[in-house]
Design a protein that fits this description.
By secondary structure, the chain is an all-alpha fold. It has two helices and no strands. It has one domain.
């Protein structure tokens, strides 16, 4: 799984009229997959939520 595949899934859900949950979509992934996502580097790399928001209180436990 890559950040591109996550973005493709989001676009698919949006175009099919899926209802967002709490302002976005929620996905569940195996710990090995989350490790792979966090290890990506470059311009299309995953950005941890704590690095792009000041709303630390709104971060869900386990959110990456």
């Amino acid at each position: 799984m890559t950040t591109t595949s996550i973005n493709q899934a989001r676009a698919f859900l949006s175009t099919k009229g899926a209802k967002p949950f709490a302002g976005g979509y929620v996905g569940i992934m195996h710990p090995n997959v989350s490790f792979d996502m966090r290890e990506q580097v470059g311009g299309n790399a995953w950005v941890e939520v704590k690095k792009y928001t000041d709303l630390v209180k709104d971060i869900v436990a386990g959110e990456i």
